[in-house]
């Protein structure tokens, strides 16, 4: 099989624990990235000077990290390539609700509806899950809180 070599990585990710990818002294925005959204999340975090966390797992989700950032940041952004309803963002909302935290939450993901055919980049533009649209949604949410 020809193609790209996969680098061996012996590091261990603890089950249910997230990894902080980017830190910011600006305590406005924490982006929680799930799955394939990490690269775009990194670009968005750079553009907005936000903290970026790779959540690594939806189940079990890192409740400890979510509760901690909910007391430190003005806005938590959940970024996932999954249907919003019942997805990772919903799990974050449940944790925030149960712990009575007041951080605002913006859930970015797929709508619970049919998405027109196209390649992935076209579909992301259609549903507002591309870099520019995510940045715009975050700025809009910040201005409303």
Describe this structure in words.
By secondary structure, this protein is an alpha/beta fold. The protein has one domain: Rossmann fold (3-Layer(aba) Sandwich). It has 5 helices and 5 strands, in the order ββαβαβαβαα. It has a 5-stranded mixed sheet with strand order 1-3-2-4-5, sandwiched between helices. The longest helix is centred in the C-terminal third of the chain and has 14 residues. The protein is globular, with a radius of gyration of 16 Å. The model has no long low-confidence stretch (mean pLDDT 87).
Structural class: alpha/beta
The run of helices and strands is EEHEHEHEHH
How is the biggest beta sheet arranged? 5 strands, mixed
In total, how many beta strands? 5
**How many helix segments?**
5
CATH class descriptor: Alpha Beta
Q: What is the topology, as strand order, of the major beta sheet?
A: 1-3-2-4-5
Question: Could you say what the CATH topology is called?
Answer: Rossmann fold
- List low-pLDDT spans: none
The share of residues in extended strands comes to: 15-25%
> Residue-averaged pLDDT, rounded?
87
**Tally of distinct domains:** 1
CATH architecture: 3-Layer(aba) Sandwich
Shape: globular
Taking Cα atoms only, what radius of gyration do you get, to the nearest Å?
Answer: 16 Å
Distance between the termini: 53 Å
What is the share of helical residues?
25-40%
